[in-house]
Amino acid sequence: MKIWKPTPGEKRTYEGLTGYRFRLLGQLAYASLLWEFAWPKLWAAFSFLGLFFCIALLDGFKNLLFWQHVLILVFFALVFCILLIRGLLKIPKITSEKLWRHVEIVNGISDRALTEVSDKLGLNTGKKFSQHLWYAHKYFLLNSVRDIRVPLPSPSMAEKDPRGFRFFIPVLLIVSLFASYGETHKRVSIAFSPSIPILFENLKIN
Q: How far is CA 80 from the centre of its chain?
């Protein structure tokens, strides 16, 4: 019986596909899946931060008393940190198996070709027959995943926010940027710089 054996060109293709291509694919897929998992957990924190900048750009901090300004800054900082930490703690860990299985599902691959593509021959490694069968198995796996694509992030925000409240802050932020045209940097600086009261303004030195 003739056993399939890769040609030198096929072997180089196999080594290349299991090397740089899958490393790059894994990095892109990880970034996509991380965004998909992270954004639903973090959007509340960044929306709250966006609200702060909307108030700043609309010059809402201009006429505040010193103690009022400080209290509002502390309030925004505290709530933002709470929302951010709570969101970060809810982001699930992305394992290698979960990552590749996600790519397989998106690409319609049902035989776990990506999950198995990095497997190594564990038994009978010194036997030519086993090596040839292993190369054949791996090469056919690679042919099945040659044209896979990295899935775009799909956080499913429409299901979590069907009324579309997530668009309110971005729209308000754009309006605020237009309203503060020419004074954007100044207004943001005022928001982060409470005016220290001059208690001895009328004090005269004889």
A: 18
